[in-house]
Each structure stands twice: as structure tokens, then as C-alpha cells.
Model the fold of this input.
Amino acid sequence: MTRMSAPETPQAAPRILSGMQPTSDSLHIGNYLGALVNWVKLQDDHDAFYFVADLHALTVPTDPEVLRERTRKTVAQFIAGGVDPQRSSLFCQSHVPEHAELGWVMNCLTGDGEARRMTQFKDKTAKGQSANVGLLTYPMLMAADILLYDTAFVPVGEDQRQHLEITRDLAGRFNTRFGEALVVPEPYIVKGSAKIMDLQDPTSKMSKTGSSPKGLIDLMQDPAKIAKNIRSAVTDTEAEIRYDVANKAGVSNLLIIHSTLSGQSIDELESSFVGRGYGDLKKEVADVVVAAIEPFQVRMAELLDDPAELDRILASGAERARGVAQSTMVRVRERVGLLPAAR
Ligand code: AQP
Done:
């Protein structure tokens, strides 16, 4: 099948798009090291669209006022982490109604069994999250998020690779059935991108909604609490500090966090910890994390002090996003056979 190239501004920097759900007051260090630091690097040479996925967040029942607050806090964390609203389009998913509209079209292209095979749905329901239909169709809305913007690349963590595959399948299916209209995106799994595991259950990924409070390192947490959580991280009964994910998941996770933040390689860290114990490793990891987080928290306090400015940033990002999304939906509506509304 022919792969469509971006119909809009073909000479422009390649477009990338990524989002995060406002499912907590704070992002965690997995969101930061696995996604946000890459977003910041990528905005230099890409046409970057970054959004707060508030429609996705509705799959987790939340108090409406809390959801509104978390939406502002999430966009503030993007900016505190280094995303520049002058260079990147920052917006809120629900401010562009075309996401829900294209999401419906994607639902109608997806088989029931295909949706049920998605590992995130299986993992979350296995952990007891109530299985509303929104959780089941989450990947179809995610496909719509991506396809609306003629996205060339999607920078996501390893954990989201399967959702990107179904997005590519759905775009291809749409183009085959209705004629070329959607760009098939490529995954952009950044080399060496960290997957951070839960401190208490280092075989599961750290997650805003799936981890216990002690399993998390939250970016907005009190530094003393961060250090306490790291001190009580689950390790193993040996004493050797060695990177070995299969047999020493907890120690390997701490080494990854240290290495990604300090810039020291895993080999260097292993050498520097020869003859030292897990207590030393945990103390050093806590110091490295707290040093990285302190300036972030200072910037967050400034940003949250001016919610009107955050709203202005979201309004200007949404205006740009709507321009692209609306033109995609004109093509999609025409292809699938929806009658244009008389004006
Ligand atoms: N543990 C992780 N390590 C590395 N990257 C991670 N990401 C999430 N957890 C880790 C990346 O962060 C981005 C934000 O994803 P999201 O907010 O849409 O939801 P998620 O991927 O499902 O992340 P969470 O924290 O587990 O949220 P909840 O609990 O709400 O589902 C993505 O790019 C993801 O790869």
C-alpha cells in the first residue's frame, strides 16, 4: 500500500505529536525520563504538538474540579520540564472536538476482539480498574489524536508501542477502504529512552494510576518523601550492585534512574559502587533525583501562580491545533460519506 506523505506543509520540519493524561496532581519520574525530556529535545528540529489528554483521563472516574486542576497542573509540568510554548503547540485535547469525532470513526473501523487484545486494557482491568467502554476504546481515541495532525513521528515510551501499531493499522485500513486520506505515522522510540519501574514492584512500570504511593517518585513530591520512597525501594537479598534486569530488577531500576539523570553510564556506576551497599546506592539516587527536581518545583510554583497565563497558552495552542484538525476532518467526512452540513 502507498504510504501517504503529509499533505500539509511538506517542506516543513517533520511533525511530531505526543500527550499525557492529567490522571494525577503530579507526573512521575517515568513520565519525565521516558517522555518529557525527549519532548524537550525534539522541539528543536520538529513541528511539535504536545497535548494534555483530558478525554483519555475520563476513563478513570475523577471529581470534575480535580480534573480541571490537574489539566492545568499537567500543562504547567510540560513547561516546567522545558517545553517551550513559543516553539511547540501546547493544547488540551477536549479543546479540539475533532479528536472525539475521529475517535468515533476509528471505533467503527476496529474489531471487538482487536480492541480486547490491547495489553494496556488487559493490564489495567487485571489490576482491578473498572472496565468502562472508554478504557476499551482508548487506543482508538489515541489513533485519532495522532491521525488528526498528519503526524510523521510519535515519540512514545516502549510501553505505548502496541497502541502505535494499531494506529498504523487503522490508518492503513482507512486508506484502503476509503482512499488515501490519512498519514501513516512512524513510532519514534528514542534510543536509550528509559522505562522506569515501580519502586515497590520493579517488574511493573511506574504508573500514575497503577502504582502505590510508595512505588512512585512524583515530580511534585516533597523531597524528603522522595528520599524516603527511594530508601524503601524493593531490591533483592544479594549485596552486589549490578545491572541485571532479569535477576535484579529493583537495583537495575535504581541504576537506570541514576544514570539517566546524572549522565554517568551504567558501567561507570557499577565500578563506582564496587564494595558498597544498597544503602549507598539509594542515598546517591535520592540525591541525584532531588537535585534534578528542585528547580522544576520552583518553576512550577511560578507557573501555577498565574493560571490565566496557562489558559492563554492553551488557547493559542488549541487555535493552531484546530486549524490542522479541521482540515483533516473535512477529508475524513468526505471519504466516509457524511453529508456536509448546509450553511
Ligand atoms: N514508567 C514509565 N517509564 C517510562 N515512560 C513512561 N511513560 C509512562 N510511564 C512510564 C510515558 O509517559 C507518557 C505519558 O503517558 P500517559 O500519561 O498518557 O499515560 P501512561 O503511559 O499510561 O502513563 P502512566 O503514568 O502509567 O499513567 P496512567 O496511570 O494514567 O495510565 C507516555 O509517553 C508513556 O510512554
User: Anything to note?
Assistant: The chain is about 50% helix and 5% strand. Strands lie at 15-20, 47-52, 89-92, 153-154, 186-187.
